[in-house]
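Support request, please re-run this one:
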Amino acid sequence: MATVNTDGGLTLVLGGKGKTGRCVAERLRALGRPVRIGSRSATPSFDWDDRSTWGLALNGVSSADVAVAGEIALAPRDFADYVRRTAATGVSGG
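Re-run finished. Output below.
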């Protein structure tokens, strides 16, 4: 899923340490866009299985990119809840 961050704000790239997510993050950075990687090992961390991590990962973010199709397929309810929470904070996504 591609994200177009037109406001120059911070983009959260979930799965940003994987093959696809890393490419997305690199391209955004090449365009001069600030990027936050979303993963369990990042700071702040993002863990699909721990919803308490979602708020910190989304804090200050203006757009989000999700590059974790395999995980989403395993937990569609979690993904739907993430999308609702993200939209409620005003974050745009692709």
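The chain has one domain: 20-88. DSSP finds four helices and four strands in the chain.
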